[in-house]
Design goal:
Layout (H helix, E strand, L loop, with lengths): L4 H8 L3 H8 L7 H13 L16 E8 L4 H15 L4 E8 L4 H11 L5 E4 L5 H12 L4 E4 L10 E3 L3 H16 L4 E7 L5 H17 L3 E8 L4 H14 L3 E6 L4 H10 L7 E5 L3 H9 L4 E4 L2 H16 L12 E3 L8
Parallel strand pairs: 1-2, 1-3, 3-4, 4-5, 6-7, 6-8, 8-9, 9-10
Antiparallel strand pairs: 10-11
Helix pairs in contact: 1-2, 1-3, 2-3, 4-12, 5-6, 7-8, 9-10
Length: 337
């Protein structure tokens, strides 16, 4: 009977995708696994004693999937990938922009990428369709890394980002200290709780308020899909309906919309506002007093770590990094650059 690729995979104890990678000299396989597969192929007669013909080595190709939209942090991430791509020899970074809150769109794009990629990094919602698409990529031998917001129940290789629950607790602690004693009402905004990172920030924020600042009352959570205009309309509606709002915590993007609603009502510098990601826009809001604190994750470091970890994984090396540092910026400690 003719020996098949599946026979070799069974003998070597690996997937058919791994056998395909070894016999075609593709990256992403450890040297020991390569030896085991080659020996199994020889013993079964799938290849002769001479080394199997190998395809020419090629540059690594990584796919980076980011949400489209008006999110300034995502735009900064995208620009960092573009900038760092220019400095990397022998690596091709393909940057995709998709509708970030549609799991079907993301899953379809992951399916299109398939075996053409040596590694994928993505920001996406924690949804069954996305988890299955990640699982299919991994079965095909393509390592997947989550960025900024994790999808822990998918077989991703690792997560590059901050501890979002700790970031939410930090926001709550800052808000409680800035507001001081007494009863105060707080409005919450998020991009979408389908993003695990936003869900974790909300949980951390609520938990520390319950533990440390029980007099702070959360009057609602509005999802604005990280869109500036949606955030503006939602903030305007909240401020008009609740004239005693003392503080706003924005878990995701859309800070420009919230700031616009505050300024139109002469509430900037009166309502405490805490948000995330130091961008050109949030820096300006700290300077003019509309925002009081910005909790940041360094995009330059994130992008560097994504590329570093994908390169390690494509070379058969293990994951090797820890959660990134959380930084808080106020008007008085803004970086010069």
């Amino acid at each position: 009977m003719r020996v098949t690729l599946a026979d070799v995979a069974r003998e070597a104890g690996v997937s058919t995708a791994t056998v395909d990678r070894v016999l075609n000299a593709r990256s992403g396989v450890r040297s020991r696994t390569r030896e085991v597969v080659t020996e199994a192929a020889r013993q079964l007669g799938y290849i002769g004693d001479a080394p199997a013909p190998m395809a020419a080595q090629r540059a690594l190709a990584f796919d980076i999937i980011l949400p489209a939209g008006t999110n300034s942090y995502i735009e900064d991430l995208r620009q960092q990938f573009v900038d760092q791509r220019r400095a990397i020899a022998g690596t091709n970074l393909r940057i995709h922009a998709i509708e970030g809150f549609n799991p079907a769109t993301l899953a379809a794009r992951l399916g299109e990428i398939g075996r053409r990629s040596d590694g994928v990094a993505l920001i996406g919602p924690d949804h069954p369709m996305v988890r299955e698409a990640i699982r299919a990529l991994v079965v095909d031998g393509v390592p997947v890394v989550t960025l900024a917001s994790d999808i822990p129940h998918a077989p991703r290789a690792g997560f590059v980002g901050i501890d979002n629950r700790s970031a939410g607790r930090l926001a709550g602690w800052l808000m409680g200290r800035l507001l001081g004693p007494g009863q105060h009402r707080v409005a919450l905004f998020a991009g979408s709780l389908s993003y695990r990172g936003h869900e974790e920030r909300e949980a951390g924020f609520r938990h520390i308020l319950a533990e440390e600042f029980p007099d702070l009352e959360i009057i609602g959570l509005t999802e604005v899909l990280d869109d500036v205009e949606r955030a503006y309309r939602a903030a305007a509606a909240h401020l008009d309906a609740h004239h005693d709002i003392a503080a706003i915590y924005n878990i995701g993007a859309g800070n420009r919309g919230i700031a616009r609603a505050l300024k139109e009502r002469d509430l900037a510098r009166k309502v405490i506002m805490i948000g995330h990601e130091l961008t050109a826009h949030t820096k300006a809001m700290l300077l003019d007093g509309t925002m009081d604190a910005v909790i940041d994750q360094n995009v330059r470091v994130e992008v560097r770590e994504v590329i570093s970890q994908l390169t390690r994984l494509a070379s058969g090396e293990p994951w090797a990094m820890h959660p990134l540092r959380i930084t808080v910026f106020f008007r008085e400690n803004l970086p010069a650059e």
